[in-house]
Description:
Blueprint: E1 17-30, E2 33-40, E3 43-49, E4 55-56, E5 67-76, E6 91-102, H1 119-124, H2 126-129, H3 133-155, E7 159-160, E8 178-180, E9 188-190, H4 196-204, E10 209-217, E11 229-238, H5 242-261, E12 270-272, H6 273-280, E13 294-295, E14 312-318, H7 326-338, E15 345-349, E16 355-356, H8 365-375, E17 382-388, H9 390-405, E18 416-420, E19 425-428, E20 434-436, H10 449-454, E21 467-472, E22 475-482, H11 487-496, H12 501-514, E23 522-528, H13 529-537, H14 567-573
Parallel strand pairs: 3-6, 4-6, 7-10, 12-18
Antiparallel strand pairs: 1-2, 1-5, 2-3, 5-6, 8-9, 10-11, 11-23, 13-14, 14-17, 15-16, 15-17, 18-21, 19-20, 21-22, 22-23
Aspartic acid (ASP) binds at residues 172, 194, 196, 479-481, 524-526.
Amino acid sequence: MRTHRAGDLRPDHVGETVELCGWVASRRDHGGVLFLDLRDAAGVVQVVVDPDGVDGADAHGVRAEYCLRVTGTVRERPAGTVNPDLRTGAVEVAAGSLEVLNPSEPPPIPIGDRTDVDEVLRLRHRYLDLRGERLQRNLRLRATVNSAIRTAMEANGFVEVETPMLVASTPEGARDFVVPSRLTPGEFYALPQSPQLFKQLLMVGGLDRYYQIARCLRDEDLRADRQFEFMQLDAEMSFADGADVRAVIADAVSAAVERVTGAPVGEIPVLTHAEAMARFGSDKPDLRFGMELVDLGHVFATTDFRAFQADAVKGLRWEGQADLGRGRLDALIDRAKQLGAAGLVWVKVRDGGVLESPTVKFMSEAEQLGLLDATGGRPGDLLLVVAGERRMVDTVLGTVRNDLARPPVNEGGLRFCWVVDFPLFEAIADDGAPIPAHHPFTAPHPDDRALLERAHGEELLAVRSQAYDLVCNGWELGSGSVRIHDGALQARIFERIGIDAETAQARFGFLLDAFRYGAPPHAGFAFGIDRLVGILAGEENIREVIAFPKTQSGADPLTGAPTPVDDRHLRELGIQVRRRG
Ligand code: ASP
């Protein structure tokens, strides 16, 4: 139906007769002569219509978002009317004929301009929203990322295998979406939180290197970086350790980043979890900025200042902020308290290294010098100090560090890092059982096997695992681990986390059984494509990189999902719904 795409026209095409198809992005009537911006997938070009000299449709009847076919001649724009903001801005098309392929009702949302438009309205008319440049760019970027990942994984010998959507529950720590079974009323499938167990079975099955760009579903509250369903690059490798997995995942991520930005990622630094917490107060450190946490334990080891007689005393140097007003300082103290600290001490560094703070009088001269020396504080800086239990101190300062200095998503380039040796357990539940930090198939760190056997209660939190995360600009992109491939150890872990042998057999018997048949050592990883694309597109909210996302409340205003199901269907499923209220 067309010879060119509107957005592709350039001065090289001047003099050519072209046929274009697209939508009316805007229309300006200049006393008879009509200027239309015709938009298609490649961009926008200006079409000039002289109603007396054009065949076909009534040009003046054409409105925004009409779908048109235009035949015309490409010409240079008259001097002074070149639009440098538009890729086609040096040319225009003088229309010879105009055909309305389909008229449009007035669009209920402005297309391309996303400010001040109610999100529900935008999602209800997502097909119109998609016509705008931002979503067009983001979805194309997403396709580029997927394609680069596939190519890189295949180059490393990975085989794409699809795993089922109707499964038994896979424990990733979230709530399952369930699907009722018609053939066995009263029973339910779970939608996969991840292909975790299947990919491990694929390794037992000798597939050796598996990958999939997999849809995962988790029934968790939605946030800017979370949807019910999301896509992961999911991978598993046999006869491999964590470093092997990290190398192939780095290849895939680098390939995607390079295809989009043109620049390679380079060597990705590796931090242990302990180091990340100590230096950045976070297991997803944002390396785009410094402001590292400084240990002040040695400075205040024998202090008389009661507030600093604690398990840990640590600080941050906020450069050039010594003139921060009382209100902002109080807000920082409140923030620290809200995060669990007993308080936060601020110290302003004045000329000559003189310290100014209501607490200075509690510090000896040596402590004051030590504080300056350890933090590298210079005149004009503001020092912030928190004391207390070490994990709390790290977390509070890590959060404050992000609050104060974290750049917006699209600034400061891309800074990746691996965080390795995560703790095996993240917390101890009320019943005393430890809660896995990753999932229960993660292998403990070889050096901590003995500790795992003898530790009890809180001590268990010191057991490290062979789990690792990929972090970019302070976002956790994904996680993986070396897996347990030994049935006895897997059974022991289930036991430690409070899943008794019978329950373990009932829920994961198939995995334990599989491990009895020469399961190979294996390790894997999965990372969120939505997040990676979001970062590459400079979008804070992953809804901007998903074609048909849900709203914050989990609804799809376009299709109306979720919807009630009629009674006959429910009866067939053996389900009776208790209406709320
Ligand atoms: N299944 C894990 C997840 O979805 C990733 C992995 O361990 O491979 O987070």
